[in-house]
Design brief:
Layout: E1 3-6, E2 16-22, E3 29-30, E4 35-40, E5 45-49, E6 54-59, E7 68-69, E8 73-78, H1 95-98, H2 118-130, H3 133-138, H4 142-147, H5 153-162, H6 180-185, H7 196-209, H8 218-233, E9 236-244, H9 246-258, H10 267-281, E10 287-290, E11 293-296, E12 302-304, E13 306-308, E14 311-313, E15 316-317, H11 325-340, H12 346-349, E16 354-358, E17 377-391, E18 394-408, H13 414-429
Parallel strand pairs: 12-16, 16-17
Antiparallel strand pairs: 1-8, 2-4, 2-7, 3-6, 4-5, 6-8, 9-18, 10-11, 12-15, 13-14, 17-18
Helix pairs in contact: 10-13
Length: 436
């Protein structure tokens, strides 16, 4: 029996992905465990391995296809002893697809536990059998009709670029699915005739409100969804404190002078270390709200926000409180480098108990960050800059760094947030205490 290769869920937040590259070809023998494709997720590009032995019979989703839903059959393997030519290009799916369809008129009598998509599948099969497709489509709205157009993501993109309506095409793929070749074979939409009057109107419009539409990447859509969820569901409150960091900077210089080759401790490494120690000192801040209970984390599993092309990722430094500064520095440098190259594994950016977002390198004085759900807090770190301060009644100049803690009031009270910031400030201004 043939084996379906489906789009895998490579992270808890992944709902769709892009087939970046196939590493196999039709007719090629694929042992179990071999890498068969590179899949772009919302966070990184990851290798996908075959879970079965077989011979590649069909590749159903072309390289470069975007927005392929998790669970979609992307290739079909023939098992040992099966003839590749005898394998159908139509995936063998759930038994519901093979069962005879009920007439369209009886859909309202379907059992209550029937999946939401079953009526559509049944209606399509029934319409095909009874020749009522045109009547059914005419009775549907344009929105409903568009949902019934089966086309690959690549075909949809090409059609949009060429101005071709998919509802006017006949697909040559399985079950009439519109493929790339169907779109490329169709004539492009006729060019719009521009009259002098319309040209003047367009020029006026461009002068007053020129713009362009840029498609949101899968990463941007996930970021938007998660942060909107965070702002809507988690009641944020903000606590800000100034930290004098002259002693911290001096300690950093001394540490780097004695550090072995290849180790360079950054200010961000020291901030992460101070945050980890503060989370251990104030465990009530190292929590996440989960409806009927609050999860308290045993370690300071700190996520650090890393800006990449098109968005950001938050690789996790697991049990940061157990790391020395040299090990912490090497870990953060490695995670940040691989994050920018899209080479993180799912386990390296999934989870965590607390997040740090540092915009100090961009000269930002202070800001308030949005909590990284489902965590309970995030620390926004600004730039260290020289400011006038009063010490023992005398005006002097010190290097000051402003930090703002955004906390989820469902899990963290104001007093707890203040205690955590007090502890963090203590470690930053007296860095020797981080070594105790």
């Amino acid at each position: 029996m043939s084996v379906n290769v489906t789009m895998p869920a490579l992270s808890p937040t992944m709902t769709e992905g892009t087939v970046a590259k196939w590493l196999i070809a039709v007719g090629e023998t694929v042992p179990s465990g071999d890498v068969i494709a590179d899949i772009e997720t919302d966070k990184a590009t990851m290798e996908v391995e075959s879970i079965e032995d077989g011979v590649v019979a069909h590749i159903l989703v072309e390289a470069g296809s975007e927005n392929v839903a998790v669970g979609t059959v992307i290739a079909i393997l023939a098992e040992a002893g099966e003839a590749v030519d005898a394998i159908s290009a139509t995936p063998v799916t759930a038994a519901a697809d093979e069962a005879p369809a009920a007439p369209t008129e009886t859909l309202a009598e379907a059992p209550a536990n029937t999946p939401a998509e079953t009526p559509i599948a049944v209606a399509q099969t029934s319409v095909t059998q009874t020749g009522m497709a045109q009547t059914a489509v005419a009775q549907k709205s344009m929105a409903e009709t568009s949902k019934r157009i089966f086309a690959t993501p690549l075909a949809r993109r090409i059609a949009a670029n060429k101005g071709i309506a998919l509802d006017g095409l006949t697909g040559s793929g399985p079950h009439g699915r519109i493929l790339r070749r169907d779109v490329e074979a169709a004539p492009a939409a006729p060019a719009v005739q521009i009259t002098p009057a319309s040209a003047n109107a367009m020029a006026s419009s461009a002068a007053t409100g020129a713009s362009e539409l840029v498609a949101n990447s899968q990463m941007r859509q996930v970021i938007a969804s998660r942060l909107q969820q965070s702002k809507q569901q988690a009641p944020h409150f903000y606590v800000t404190v100034d930290c004098q960091i002259d002693t911290l900077l001096a300690a950093r210089r001394a540490l780097n002078e004695k550090a072995p080759d290849g180790v360079k401790i950054s200010l961000n490494d020291l901030v992460i270390r101070a945050a980890a120690m503060a989370l251990m000192a104030v465990p009530d801040a190292n929590v996440a709200y989960e409806d009927t209970h609050t999860r308290r984390f045993q370690h300071a599993d700190i996520c650090m926000a890393v800006a990449i092309d098109g968005g950001l990722v938050t690789p996790v430094i697991w049990a940061a409180e157990t790391m020395g500064l040299a090990a912490l520095s090497q870990t953060t440098a490695d995670l940040a480098s691989r994050a920018r190259q899209g080479q993180l594994r799912a386990a390296e950016y999934t989870g965590g108990s607390f997040t740090i977002s540092n915009l100090g390198m961009f000269g930002v004085r202070e800001f308030a960050a949005v909590i990284n759900p489902p965590q309970g807090a995030i620390l926004a770190v600004g730039a260290g800059e020289q400011r006038p301060v009063v010490v023992d009644g005398a005006l002097t100049v010190a290097t000051v760094m402003t930090v703002t803690l955004s906390a989820d009031h469902r899990a963290i009270d104001g007093a707890v947030a203040a205690q955590w910031l007090q502890s963090f400030k203590g470690f930053v201004e007296n860095p020797v205490t981080m070594l105790l």
